[in-house]
Amino acid sequence: MFKTFLWKEFTELKRDKKVLIGSVVLPLIIFPILGVVVFASQLSTPVFSVLVLDPHAEPYAKMLEGVIQREGGEVVPNNDTAAQVLIIFPRGFATNVSNLSSPVTVRVETSVSANAKANQILDDALYNLTLTIAYQRINELATKANVTVNPSLIWSPLKVERGYLTIQSKPTQAYSALLVDVARLIAFLLFPGSTPVVFYVVEGLIGERERRTLEALLSTPTKVSAIIYSKLLVSLLIGFLSSLGDLVGVSLLLLSLGLYSSVPLAQAVTLVAFIIGITIGNLLVASLLTLIFMYVLGGSSKSFQLISLVVTTFGLLASFYALAFSPSFLSFPETLSLLMPFVQFSASLMVYVAGNPLEGVTIFSASVLITLLLLVLVASRFSSERLLLK
Questions:
Q1: How many whole angstroms from its chain centre is CA 253?
Q2: How many domains does the chain have?
Q3: Using CB atoms within 10 A of its CB, is residue 201 exposed (0-12), middle (13-18) or buried (19+)?
C-alpha cells in the first residue's frame, strides 16, 4: 500500500509542471549560468593604462608595464576608456627617486568595476616598482659608503620557513589551508539552500487538506505514518533536485582545484561526495524540524511562516558556524553547539577538511542516524486528527 501511495505522489509531481520547472529545472539552469558568469568575470583580462608626465620616468613605466603583462594584464594607451586602472607617474618622479630623503609618489586611479585579479596585478606591479627603487637607493648608499652589500638582504632580511598543521597537530601541505577556506565558503552558501524543503513538506500535507483529498486518504487502510513518509520522500527528492545547481557549481569548483592546483584530485573527488552527503543530511534535518513544528503548531499559513523562519535561522547559524570554526569548538563547552540543527553537518565538514576525516565522517554518520530515528519517532506521533488540525 505504501508503494502505491508513493507512486501516486510521484505521478502527481510529474503532472505539476510548475513545481518541476520552478524547483528543479530553473535552478539547474540558473545556478550553473551564474557560476559561469562569476568565473568568467574573474578570468577576464584586466586592462591597465600608464600615463607618464615625467620623461625621465619612462624606464620605470616600462618596467611596470612589463610586470603587468607578465601577470596577465593588458596595457592600453592612456586615452583608452576600456582601462580599469590608470597609473600616473607625476612630474619630478625621477628626481624624487634619486633624492634619498624624499618620498616617491605615484598616483593610481582604479575603476570601481575592477575585479580582484586587477587589484592583485596592481599590487604586484607596485611592489616590483617599490623594490626597484629601494634597490637603487641601497646601491647608491653602498657606493657612497664604499661597502659591498646585497640589497635583497637589507630589503628583506627575514627568512620564513612556513609549515602547516592539521587540527590534530600533524604536518600537512599548504593545500589543506586552501581547502578549509573553500569549505567555509561552501558551507556559507550551502546550508540556507536546504530550507526550501520546508515548503515542499508543508505543501505536500496542507495541499492535500486544501484540495479536500486528505480525508479520503485517511479513510484508506494506509497508515498515517506511511502518508507522511511518502510526502517526505517526494519532498526530499524535489529538495535534492533543486539543490543540484548548487552541487554542480561546488563540484566544478573542487574538481578544478584538483586539476589546476596542488589539491590532490582524489581528495577533491571524495570531498565532493562528502558534500553531497551533507546536502542530503541538511534536507533531512529541515524535514524533521518541519514535522516537529507542524505537530506542535498545526498546519496554518501562520505556522508555515514561523516554521520557515526558524529553519532558515538555524541554517544561517550553521553557515556562520563554519566561518567562525576553530579547533577549540571540539572541546567542552563549545561542543554543546553541536546540539543545534544543521550545525552538526557544518562541524563535520570543517573537521573533515581540517585534517581529521574520520571524526568528520563519524559526526556526519551519527547526525544522519539520529535525524532518521527522530523522523520515524515524530511521524509515528501523528494521527488522523492531528493531520486535519489547522
A1: 10
A2: 2
A3: buried
Which ranges constitute the DSSP H helices of 146-196? 151-155, 174-190
Nearest alpha-carbon partner for 271 in 173, 352, 177: 352
DSSP 331: S
DSSP 46: P
Q: For position 319, what pLDDT does the model report?
A: 83
Is residue 35 domain-resident?
no
CATH code of the domain in which 118 resides: 3.40.1710
Q: What is the pLDDT of residue 31?
A: 55
| Whether 354 contacts 271, CB under 8 Å | no
pLDDT digits (tens, 9 = 90+) for 174-211: 888 888 888 888 888 777 667 777 777 777 777 777 77
Domain of residue 299, residue span: 167-388
- Extract the C-alpha cell encoding 94: 625621477
Note whether 335 and 198 are same-domain residues: yes
101 lies in the same domain as 185: no
Q: Would you state the pLDDT for residue 62?
A: 95
Q: Which residue ranges in the chain fall short of pLDDT 50? A: 1
